[in-house]
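Hey, weird one. I pasted the Bacterial extracellular solute-binding protein, family 5 Middle sequence into the form twice and got a warning about non-standard characters only the second time. First submission, copied straight from the form history:
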Amino acid sequence: MKFPFQFNPTATGFALALIALIGSALHAPASAQTLTYAESGKPEDSGLGLLQEAPHDIIYFTDSSGGGWAKVQLLPIRDMPATTRGSLRFSILGIELDEFVAKWTDIERIDFWEKRLERETASRIANGDFVGAYPFLSILIRDYPRRPGLKTLRSEFLWRNAIQRASGSQRAESLAMLEELHRYDPQYNQAQVLKAISLTTGSLMQSLIDEGDLDNAQQLLARLKEDYGRFDLPAIAKWEGEFLRMATEKRNEAIEAVKRKDFRSARKLARESLYLKPDIDGGRDLVKKIDEAYPLVSVGVLQAARIYDPVRMDNWAARRAGRLLYRNLFEIQGAAPEGGEYDFLFGSAETTPDRQVLELTLETAKLPNPLNRIEVDFLADQLALRAMPESETYFSPWAASVTGIGIDGPQRIECVLRRPHVLPTCLLQINVDASWFGGEKGGATGDYFTDVVNDEETRFMLTEDARRASGDSGKPREIVEVRCNTGSESVSKLLSGEIDVLDQLFPADAIKLKERRDVKVVEYPLPTIHMLVPCSDHQFVADKNFRRALLYGINREDILQGELLENHASPGCRVLSGPFPAGLSQDDPLGYAYDTTILPRRFEPSLAQLLVALSKNLKIAEAKRKDEPEPKLRAVRLAFPADNLSRVACEAIRSQWELIGLDVELVELPIGRTYPDPDTADLVYVSCAIWEPIIDARRLLGPRGLARSEDQLIGLGLRRLEEARNWKEVRDRLLVLHSISHHELPVLPLWQMVDSFAYRNNLVGMGSNIVSLYQNAGNWRLEF
C-alpha cells in the first residue's frame, strides 16, 4: 500500500512501531475506531460529532500522487501558500508522536479547521437549525474572533433566528436577538432590523397589556425610547399615544369620582393614571388633592388577619393587624443588648437598682382618649389577676416572680418581686381592651376599628377619637389590607401603585426591589423562627424517635436555600438546631438563647427510615406487653397557613417524607388561621416570633404553650430559667433548655428567616427598626 507522504526518520526513532501501528489501523474494522487517514475517498461528514473531535486540518492528496487524505494536527499555516515548492511537515491524529512529510506538489488542497466550522455554521443557519449552529458559532467567536466574514456570519445567525422565533410567537426572545444584532452590527440591514424591532415591540407590548403586566410594558417602552428614540420607530409613537389615552381616561374617571366624593375609587383611578403616564398633565396634583381630602394607605399582605392579637407569637397577621386595634400594657419597641425595649402604655416604668421592685407611674394627662381614663386601682387589679391561676390573663412566670402589688399614691403602683428579675416588664404584655375603660369586652383601644372584612381585603377605619385628636394632620383615615395570593402578585401591585406598602417579602423579591428608586426595602430587626409543632395525639408523632426520624427526613438546607431563598444570599437566614433565634450575626445579642455548639441535624434519609422502623418495633412490643391491638402508622397530617411561603415549604417537606416511606396529607388552614382545630392535623407549620426567649420559652414549650409539652425535662428547664437572678444565669439556663429541646424535640426546628417589608417613597413616617409594621402607623403620611 502506497501513501503520498513519508515517515520522517529524523523526527523519531520509532519507525518499526509506526509501520506496525499503520498496518493494524488499516486492517481494523471501520466501527472499531475513527479513521484519521485513508488512501482514497474523503472522510465521513461528522455533523455535530465534529464538536467532539480535537481541532484538526484535513490534507487531501492529488490523484497523481496516489490520492487519499489525512486528518492532521493544526498546521502552523492557516491558508494555502502561493507557491508549491518544498514540502510540508505534519502529525496525523492518533499518532501525534511521529512526524510525516509530503511534497507540496502532491497536496491538492487543505481543509482548514476554522473553514469547516464556518461551513457547518452557514449550512445550519441556511437550514434554520439554529440550535445546531450555535455551538459551531461559539467556537469561532472564542477561538477565531478576527476571521474575515465572522461578523456577517454572526449577524446572519441573529437575524434569521430572530425571524424564526417571531414567527413562532417567541416575541420576547425575538426582540432580544434583534436588539443584540443592532448593538453588534448597527449597519447590518439597518432599515429591516429597525422595522422588525418596531413590529416585534408592538406585538409584545400588546401581549403585555392583554395580560395586565403594565409594569413590564412600561419598562420596555421606556427602554426602547432611550435606545431607539432617534430612529422614530412607529411602535414607540403608537404606544406612547396608547398609554396617554389610557391614562387620560383614568384621570377623567378619577375627577368624576372626586365630584361624587367617592374618594376610594378616585384614589385608585388617579394612581393608575399616574402609573400609566407619570408626566400626565395634572396627574400628581390630582393624587395630592385626593390624599389631602381623604388620606388612605393600602397595604399588600400575604397573610390576611381574622384574629387580632399584637402579642400572638404564632400568627404573623394577628400580630400585624392587632397593633391597629389593640394596645398592650407593655409594648416591645425593639431589641437591645439586654433583652427587648418595652414602653409602658400609661406612663413610665422603672426597676429599682436591686431589680426587686417594678415602679409604674401613670401620666394620664399626656394620654389620648380613652387611655386617659385608666384608674390606678383598676390597673393594680389587672396586675394581680395576671398572677391568679383562675384568671384568663394568668401567666405563671409573672405569678412566680411577684410577691406583692401595692398602690403608692393616686398615680403610682409598686410591684414587689420574689427575687431579682432581669426584665420584669416583658412579663406584662397584656392586651388592653375597651373593658378597661367601661366599654365592651374585646372592644378596640387602638386608633382603628375593622369596617369591611372579606377574602379580598380588610378595611381599618380611624376612630372618631383618633380623628378628632389628629385634626387635619394627614393621618390615614383608612388602612386597607389587600390580600395577595403570591409574592409576584404583591410586588406587581406595589410597583403599579395599587398598594403603598408590602408587609412581607420573599428574599428574592426584596433583592430585586432594592434596585428600584421609587421603593424602599427595610428588614425587620427581629427574625421569625419556623418550626413544626405537634398538635394531635398521633401515637407515633408523640414518640421522640419518630420525631427524630421526621427531622432527619427533611433536607432543611435545600428547602431554605433552594425553595424559599431561591439561591439568593440572605444574611441571617439559616437552619436551626433549637427553637430560639440564633441572631442575625455571630455576635448579635439577640442570639443569647442559642447554643452555637449544637449543630442542626443533617439530612439523613437512611437514618430516618431506620428510626421509623425502630419506632414501629417499640410500639408493637409495647402493645404485645399490654395485650393491645398492634398499632398502625397512619398518615401524618401536616397543616399550614394559607400563604405561599408556608405552602411551598410544606409541599417540599411532604415530598421528602414520602421518600422515606411515610404517607403524608397536607391540610391548608382557613384564611387567617395558623393553628388547626382538634383532630384535624398532627403537625402544623408555624412561623414564630420568639422575640424575648425569657418569657417566650414558656409560651412556646410550656404545658399551656403552643407545643403543650408535658416533658419533665422541659418543665424543669423552664422553672430554672424563671428562677434566674441575672443575665448570666438567664443565658446559661437558656442554653441548657436549648440542649434539652434539641434532644427531646417538643417542636421540630426548621430555620430562621429574616423578613422585610417595602413601601413606596411617597409614604413617610414609617420609622426605623420597627418590629411590627403598624408600630408607627399614627405617623404615616402620604406626600407628593
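That's the output from the first submission. The warning seems to come from a hidden character in my clipboard, not from the data itself. Residues 234-259 form the longest helix (26 residues).
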